[in-house]
């Protein structure tokens, strides 16, 4: 607790799904100053805007969570944007942090940086042993380039920059736009709308065999803040649940949670994405003292409840910058 009151923290993507929770937690910890920014505040793709951000806020820590994100469909439609925007934002945030003498940069990467056929569970030492899954490779490679930058700036300049690899996140406040959402919010919306309309089936991309390691958003906040406080090394750290669930099992649990009793119709002509994902969380446990606390079904219930309540008004978080 004595660490945070001395810190002035900037959170990029601080108005989005994950970032807004990080900002709220930091404020509850009594930080000297917390600034959560979105695209309307500063365009992080522009170096002048990033330099102005640091002049305006004089942070001791920057947490880089901003990202252009989306599901498989969005990644396939906009691969150039997903690559260039994510690369530019990260490069400028880290470089200008060093130039502004920020004490520490916490860079939040992505599980999509791992090779398509990495041994399961994914260990941090395997991150360079192959090319990422093709449908989200531009996004994953842009984020992985920031690991190289983080390590290079530490080696040459002694800049304290750390790199985290969170798995797939879910929870209240997620993006439920069917054009851009990830699998859990997309399936929740489909099942709720089908149940409400009395439909007898929904269609789901892929064949259901792919697996994922899902982490509740508040647990991800725990991991990020523990890393910011306790870790000052160059090696990347996985932040995940360590639990592997198939998309078919997840879809069945979602249907049950929302009360949809119809058929789940799979479309194997559509891509599955990466065949398997589960993170080895040993390094997070030993270096940070981090372990996920929220059981999947409990996190899913909270997410479904939030979505049902949100349907009476606008869903508040977009997928553009999270």
What features would you describe in this structure?
It contains ten helices and twelve strands. It has helices at 17-28, 47-57, 72-77, 79-99, 137-157, 183-197, 217-230, 247-258, 282-288, 296-310; strands spanning 8-12, 33-37, 61-64, 104-108, 161-166, 168-170, 201-205, 211-212, 214-216, 237-239, 245-246, 263-267. α4 packs parallel to α5. It has a six-stranded parallel β-sheet with strand order 2-1-3-4-5-10, with helices on both faces. It has a two-stranded parallel ribbon with strand order 6-9. It is globular, with a radius of gyration of 19 Å. Mean pLDDT is 94; it is low at 314-322. The chain is α/β, with parallel strands linked by helices and 322 residues long. The protein starts with 7 loop residues before the first strand and ends in a 12-residue tail after the last helix.
Average pLDDT for all residues = 94
The end-to-end distance, rounded to whole angstroms, is: 27 Å
CATH first level of the domain at 4-174 and 214-244 and 276-293: which class?
A: Alpha Beta
Give unreliable regions as ranges.
314-322
Q: Write the H/E string, N to C.
A: EHEHEHHEHEEHEEEHEEHEHH
Strand content: 5-15%
The residue fraction in helices comes out at: 40-55%
Radius of gyration computed on alpha carbons:
19 Å
In the CATH hierarchy, what is the architecture of the domain at 4-174 and 214-244 and 276-293 at level 2? 3-Layer(aba) Sandwich
So how many helices? 10
Widest sheet, order of strands: 2-1-3-4-5-10
Number of E-state strands:
12
The main β sheet shows up as:
6 strands, parallel
């Amino acid at each position: 607790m004595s660490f945070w009151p001395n810190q002035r923290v900037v959170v990029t993507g601080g108005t989005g799904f994950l970032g807004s929770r990080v900002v709220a937690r930091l404020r509850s910890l009594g930080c000297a100053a917390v600034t959560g920014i979105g695209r309307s505040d500063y365009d992080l793709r522009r170096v002048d805007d990033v330099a102005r951000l640091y002049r305006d806020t004089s942070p001791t820590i920057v947490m880089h969570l901003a990202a252009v994100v989306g599901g498989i469909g969005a990644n396939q439609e906009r691969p150039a944007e997903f690559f260039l925007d994510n690369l530019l934002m990260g490069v400028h945030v880290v470089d200008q942090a060093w130039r502004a003498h920020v004490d520490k940069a916490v860079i939040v990467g992505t599980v999509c940086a791992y090779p398509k056929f990495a041994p399961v569970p994914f260990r941090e030492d395997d991150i360079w042993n192959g090319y990422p899954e093709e449908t989200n490779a531009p996004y994953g490679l842009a984020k992985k380039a920031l690991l190289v930058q983080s390590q290079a700036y530490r080696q040459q300049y002694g800049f304290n920059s750390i790199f985290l690899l969170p798995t797939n996140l879910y929870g209240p406040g997620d993006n439920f736009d069917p054009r851009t959402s990830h699998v859990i919010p997309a399936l929740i919306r489909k099942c709720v709308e089908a149940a409400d309309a009395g439909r007898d089936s929904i269609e789901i991309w892929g064949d259901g065999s792919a697996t994922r390691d899902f982490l509740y958003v508040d647990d991800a906040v725990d991991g990020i803040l523990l890393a910011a406080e306790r870790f000052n090394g160059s090696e990347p750290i996985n932040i995940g649940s360590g639990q592997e669930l198939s998309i078919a099992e997840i879809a069945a649990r979602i249907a049950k949670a929302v009360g949809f009793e119809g058929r789940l119709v799979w479309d194997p002509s559509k891509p599955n994405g990466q065949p398997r994902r589960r993170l080895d969380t040993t390094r997070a446990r030993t270096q940070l003292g981090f372990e996920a606390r929220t059981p999947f079904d409990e996190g899913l219930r909270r997410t479904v409840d939030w979505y049902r309540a949100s349907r009476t008004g606008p869903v508040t978080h977009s997928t553009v910058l999270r």
